[in-house]
Q: What sequence folds into this?
């Protein structure tokens, strides 16, 4: 929402905190108390249509003055500490959009069904809540977004929302099943868009995509489907039923088989995005002959060395992105794609481009970052683009080519197929070089090729030195006895350990080992949220305070998150902060 100070119809009081861990500055309007908010609303109560109170910590209850805002159409109360939403808010005669993602709500808002004109609803549903039945009485509702912090069951009555066009489910819980779409949705006439995404820490819950697609296949106007963060196994086969889809997004999925075999039937697609999925495939099958409406194709994460021949027949393609895919070459037939405007080929192993790319009349963006071009090749490409830009003053091609040769080891590691013969010691050395270059290489290591725990131990030490976040990827069952402690010690020397500390499996460590790792992390950590990530049940209060002393000496802001901080530590923290500001 734009902050338009002089517009009496919009009151934008959103607030975003400063985050020193990530260098994010504060943004928006800070209201010191509820009275300040009431004063600001009172000034515009007769004209205001949009009010944004997102992240206003001082708002602990809904002010009565909102009941006098008779023209109010949109209100956002998200991330405020309110614990109740009064019914009068839903009787406002013009209310069409209500956003309420609040962490302290005791129950779902009562009286929601009274918002007879409500078209857009975004709510947070807490753990152990049931689905709010009043939602199914909102007969004008078109857009429903639910942030789920616990597994719920979607009711059959959802089908009563006859005008519902978009349904978005955001999953924020680690344990529990993903809600299934009720069978009553079958044949829904208005439904156009479905988005189901898992944002929890434990990724890849199993989701029965085949059952879902059977339900959606009878919805005549369904155009958009987005799935992210699940293990769908071979359920992707059901995608072939959704023949009316125009937009398909598949992100961070685990599958068995090749999902492109299922996508082949979706010839009405205008946009196909397949992001971050490390599919176990070696090629994209030659399926694009019938995809004459495809305008946008984005593919990242899976290793394929070339695009299939039919790809170069996508005459309506406007935007293509092939990233982190091990692409070795492009066919000169890319010159057939006369409508192509944007070409992103980042993080592959390309060494040359076909000349036909420079004949594309609509080309406006060419991105070949992080490939393997030589300096003289880049210079030659720049010269060609300069000539094109000179000949066409009204046209400018944006060219990006930084990072040539970067990450080449991880790319080669990912390209090693199962049938590649390689000695275990040579493979180990190759893996160490790759993780030293890029810690992300660790997840592409074939652990079965290392043969002995000694090789795996050494590789784990190398990767946590590079990135402590790699702790989450370590298979502790493959480690030699005592190695896990040494690996955790190495990780604790990394300044980012405060963010990754919860990945340490302290049950595998003795009390003495865990204390040593905590102290090591306290010395090097740069996160203000480090202390809450420690398992304080492992030691006494006295030991905890010693760790806190070390953490505060290293990073005074950690005091904010200490459990029952002592006065001495408070004074030390203030003293250190003052000295650091003076410097």
A:
């Amino acid at each position: 929402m734009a902050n338009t100070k002089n517009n009496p119809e919009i009151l934008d009081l959103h607030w975003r905190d400063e985050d020193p861990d990530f260098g994010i500055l504060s943004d928006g309007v800070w209201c010191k108390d509820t009275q300040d908010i009431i004063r600001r609303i009172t000034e515009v109560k007769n004209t205001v249509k949009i009010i944004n109170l997102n992240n206003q910590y001082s708002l602990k209850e809904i002010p009565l003055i909102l009941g006098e805002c008779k023209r109010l159409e949109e209100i956002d109360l998200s991330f405020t500490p309110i614990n109740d939403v009064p019914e009068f808010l839903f009787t406002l005669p013009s209310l069409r959009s209500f956003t309420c993602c609040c962490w302290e709500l005791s129950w779902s808002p009562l009286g929601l069904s009274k918002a007879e004109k409500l078209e857009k609803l975004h709510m947070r549903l807490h753990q152990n809540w049931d689905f709010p039945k009043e939602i199914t009485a909102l007969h004008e509702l078109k857009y429903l977004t639910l942030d789920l912090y616990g597994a719920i069951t979607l009711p059959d009555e959802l089908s009563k929302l006859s005008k519902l066009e978009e349904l978005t489910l955001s999953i924020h819980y680690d344990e529990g099943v993903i809600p299934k779409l009720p069978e009553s949705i079958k044949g829904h006439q208005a439904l156009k868009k479905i988005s189901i995404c898992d944002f929890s820490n434990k990724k890849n819950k199993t989701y029965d995509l085949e059952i879902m697609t059977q339900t959606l296949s009878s919805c005549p106007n369904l155009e958009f489907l987005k799935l992210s963060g699940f293990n769908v196994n071979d359920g992707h086969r059901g995608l072939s039923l959704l023949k009316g889809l125009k937009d398909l997004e598949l992100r961070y999925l685990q599958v068995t088989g090749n999902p492109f075999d299922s996508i082949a039937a979706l010839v009405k697609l205008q946009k196909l995005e397949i992001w971050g999925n490390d599919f176990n495939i070696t090629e994209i099958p030659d399926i694009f002959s019938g995809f004459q409406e495809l305008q946008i194709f984005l593919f990242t994460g899976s290793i394929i060395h070339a695009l299939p021949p039919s790809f170069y027949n996508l005459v309506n393609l406007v935007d293509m992105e092939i990233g982190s895919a091990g692409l070795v070459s492009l066919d000169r037939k890319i010159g057939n794609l006369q409508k192509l405007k944007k070409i992103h080929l980042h993080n592959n192993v390309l060494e040359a481009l076909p000349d036909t790319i420079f004949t594309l009349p609509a080309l406006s963006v060419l991105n070949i970052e992080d490939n393997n071009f030589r300096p003289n090749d880049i210079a030659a490409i720049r010269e060609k683009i300069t000539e094109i830009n000179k000949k066409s003053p009204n046209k400018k091609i944006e060219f990006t080519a930084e990072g040539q040769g970067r990450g080449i080891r991880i790319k080669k590691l990912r390209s090693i197929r199962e049938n590649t013969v390689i000695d275990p010691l040579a493979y180990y050395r190759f893996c160490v070089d790759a993780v030293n270059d890029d810690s992300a290489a660790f997840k592409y290591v074939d652990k079965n090729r290392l043969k002995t725990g000694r090789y795996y131990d050494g590789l784990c030490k190398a990767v946590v030195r590079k990135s402590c976040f790699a702790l989450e990827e370590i298979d502790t069952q493959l480690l030699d006895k005592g190695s896990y402690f040494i690996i955790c010690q190495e990780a604790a020397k990394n300044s980012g350990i405060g963010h990754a500390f919860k990945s340490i499996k302290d049950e595998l460590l003795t009390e003495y080992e865990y204390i040593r790792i905590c102290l090591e992390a306290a010395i090097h950590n740069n996160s203000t949220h480090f202390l809450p990530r420690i398992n304080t049940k492992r030691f006494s209060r006295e030991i905890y305070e010693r760790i806190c002393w070390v953490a505060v000496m290293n990073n005074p802001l950690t005091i904010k998150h200490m459990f029952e901080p002592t006065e001495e530590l408070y004074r030390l923290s203030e003293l250190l902060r003052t000295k650091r500001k003076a410097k």
User: Anything to note?
Assistant: The chain has a mean pLDDT of 92.
